[in-house]
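Much of what follows relies on a compact textual record of a protein's fold. The record below shows the convention in full:
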Amino acid sequence: MTGRLRAVAAVGALLVLVLLALWGSTGTQTAEPPAAGTAGRGTATGGATPAPTGGGTDRESGLPLVALASLPREAQQTVRLIDAGGPFPYDRDGVTFGNREALLPSRPRGYYREYTVPTPGEDDRGARRIVAGDDGRQLFWTDDHYASFARVQR
Protein backbone atom coordinates (compact mmCIF):
# COMPACT_ATOMS: atom_id res chain seq x y z
CA MET A 1 0.00 0.00 0.00
CA THR A 2 1.40 3.39 -0.95
CA GLY A 3 1.89 6.20 1.54
CA ARG A 4 -0.86 8.25 -0.09
CA LEU A 5 -3.29 5.32 0.04
CA ARG A 6 -2.47 4.76 3.71
CA ALA A 7 -3.11 8.42 4.45
CA VAL A 8 -6.48 8.28 2.68
CA ALA A 9 -7.37 5.09 4.60
CA ALA A 10 -6.37 6.73 7.90
CA VAL A 11 -8.49 9.81 7.18
CA GLY A 12 -11.41 7.55 6.24
CA ALA A 13 -10.99 5.56 9.44
CA LEU A 14 -10.95 8.74 11.51
CA LEU A 15 -14.11 9.94 9.78
CA VAL A 16 -15.85 6.63 10.56
CA LEU A 17 -14.83 6.92 14.23
CA VAL A 18 -16.14 10.48 14.48
CA LEU A 19 -19.43 9.52 12.82
CA LEU A 20 -19.84 6.51 15.10
CA ALA A 21 -19.11 8.66 18.15
CA LEU A 22 -21.71 11.20 17.05
CA TRP A 23 -24.22 8.47 16.28
CA GLY A 24 -23.62 6.81 19.66
CA SER A 25 -24.00 10.08 21.55
CA THR A 26 -27.56 10.64 20.32
CA GLY A 27 -28.82 7.97 22.73
CA THR A 28 -31.08 6.40 20.14
CA GLN A 29 -30.96 2.99 18.56
CA THR A 30 -31.65 2.60 14.89
CA ALA A 31 -31.77 -0.31 12.51
CA GLU A 32 -28.86 1.13 10.53
CA PRO A 33 -26.14 -1.37 9.54
CA PRO A 34 -22.49 -0.54 10.23
CA ALA A 35 -20.77 1.81 7.80
CA ALA A 36 -19.33 0.19 4.66
CA GLY A 37 -16.18 -1.79 5.28
CA THR A 38 -16.51 -1.85 9.05
CA ALA A 39 -17.55 -4.43 11.56
CA GLY A 40 -18.79 -1.80 14.00
CA ARG A 41 -16.66 0.36 16.29
CA GLY A 42 -13.32 0.94 14.65
CA THR A 43 -11.68 1.55 11.36
CA ALA A 44 -12.55 1.15 7.71
CA THR A 45 -10.96 -1.64 5.72
CA GLY A 46 -10.95 -0.01 2.33
CA GLY A 47 -14.16 -1.65 1.12
CA ALA A 48 -12.60 -4.96 0.02
CA THR A 49 -15.58 -6.74 1.57
CA PRO A 50 -19.18 -5.67 1.02
CA ALA A 51 -20.63 -4.23 4.21
CA PRO A 52 -22.61 -6.90 6.05
CA THR A 53 -26.17 -6.00 6.89
CA GLY A 54 -28.02 -6.54 10.08
CA GLY A 55 -29.78 -4.10 12.25
CA GLY A 56 -29.83 -2.64 15.67
CA THR A 57 -27.48 -3.07 18.55
CA ASP A 58 -26.74 -6.09 20.72
CA ARG A 59 -28.05 -5.26 24.21
CA GLU A 60 -25.31 -7.10 26.12
CA SER A 61 -22.25 -5.96 24.17
CA GLY A 62 -23.45 -2.66 22.71
CA LEU A 63 -22.05 -3.81 19.36
CA PRO A 64 -23.86 -3.55 16.05
CA LEU A 65 -25.78 -6.66 15.00
CA VAL A 66 -24.97 -8.32 11.69
CA ALA A 67 -26.87 -11.16 10.01
CA LEU A 68 -24.80 -14.29 9.40
CA ALA A 69 -26.29 -14.55 5.91
CA SER A 70 -24.91 -11.10 5.03
CA LEU A 71 -21.31 -11.94 5.95
CA PRO A 72 -18.86 -12.98 3.22
CA ARG A 73 -19.30 -16.63 2.22
CA GLU A 74 -15.87 -17.41 3.71
CA ALA A 75 -17.15 -16.22 7.11
CA GLN A 76 -20.29 -18.33 6.75
CA GLN A 77 -18.10 -21.35 5.95
CA THR A 78 -15.94 -20.66 9.02
CA VAL A 79 -19.09 -20.63 11.19
CA ARG A 80 -20.13 -23.99 9.68
CA LEU A 81 -16.71 -25.38 10.63
CA ILE A 82 -17.07 -23.99 14.18
CA ASP A 83 -20.49 -25.63 14.46
CA ALA A 84 -19.05 -28.94 13.21
CA GLY A 85 -16.03 -28.77 15.50
CA GLY A 86 -13.58 -28.59 12.58
CA PRO A 87 -11.40 -29.53 10.89
CA PHE A 88 -9.96 -26.05 10.62
CA PRO A 89 -7.59 -24.95 7.86
CA TYR A 90 -5.21 -22.89 10.03
CA ASP A 91 -3.08 -24.05 12.98
CA ARG A 92 -4.09 -20.96 14.99
CA ASP A 93 -7.84 -21.60 14.58
CA GLY A 94 -9.44 -22.28 17.95
CA VAL A 95 -6.76 -20.58 20.05
CA THR A 96 -7.85 -18.46 23.01
CA PHE A 97 -8.82 -14.91 22.12
CA GLY A 98 -7.68 -12.69 24.99
CA ASN A 99 -10.07 -9.76 24.37
CA ARG A 100 -7.23 -7.36 25.26
CA GLU A 101 -9.02 -4.66 23.27
CA ALA A 102 -11.96 -5.07 25.74
CA LEU A 103 -14.48 -4.61 22.93
CA LEU A 104 -16.34 -7.86 23.69
CA PRO A 105 -18.27 -8.56 26.90
CA SER A 106 -15.93 -9.37 29.78
CA ARG A 107 -15.58 -13.11 30.32
CA PRO A 108 -13.05 -15.36 32.07
CA ARG A 109 -9.85 -16.08 30.14
CA GLY A 110 -10.38 -18.97 27.77
CA TYR A 111 -14.05 -18.17 27.09
CA TYR A 112 -13.41 -16.74 23.61
CA ARG A 113 -11.78 -18.61 20.70
CA GLU A 114 -10.72 -17.07 17.40
CA TYR A 115 -11.01 -18.51 13.91
CA THR A 116 -9.53 -17.24 10.66
CA VAL A 117 -11.83 -16.16 7.85
CA PRO A 118 -9.84 -16.49 4.62
CA THR A 119 -9.60 -13.35 2.50
CA PRO A 120 -9.47 -13.96 -1.26
CA GLY A 121 -6.22 -12.66 -2.72
CA GLU A 122 -4.37 -12.63 0.64
CA ASP A 123 -1.25 -14.78 0.94
CA ASP A 124 -1.47 -14.86 4.76
CA ARG A 125 -4.26 -15.23 7.33
CA GLY A 126 -5.47 -11.71 6.67
CA ALA A 127 -7.48 -9.56 9.08
CA ARG A 128 -10.87 -11.25 9.09
CA ARG A 129 -11.89 -13.38 12.08
CA ILE A 130 -14.86 -14.97 13.79
CA VAL A 131 -14.55 -14.97 17.58
CA ALA A 132 -16.78 -17.50 19.33
CA GLY A 133 -17.86 -17.87 22.94
CA ASP A 134 -17.09 -21.18 24.59
CA ASP A 135 -20.43 -22.68 23.59
CA GLY A 136 -20.10 -21.54 19.96
CA ARG A 137 -23.50 -19.80 20.01
CA GLN A 138 -22.14 -16.32 20.76
CA LEU A 139 -20.27 -15.17 17.62
CA PHE A 140 -18.52 -11.93 16.75
CA TRP A 141 -17.21 -10.75 13.35
CA THR A 142 -14.19 -8.53 12.71
CA ASP A 143 -12.81 -7.60 9.31
CA ASP A 144 -10.09 -5.29 10.65
CA HIS A 145 -8.05 -7.56 12.94
CA TYR A 146 -9.84 -6.81 16.23
CA ALA A 147 -10.13 -3.03 15.85
CA SER A 148 -13.93 -3.43 15.71
CA PHE A 149 -16.55 -6.14 16.10
CA ALA A 150 -20.18 -6.86 15.31
CA ARG A 151 -22.32 -9.47 17.04
CA VAL A 152 -23.41 -12.15 14.55
CA GLN A 153 -27.10 -13.01 14.41
CA ARG A 154 -27.93 -16.49 13.16
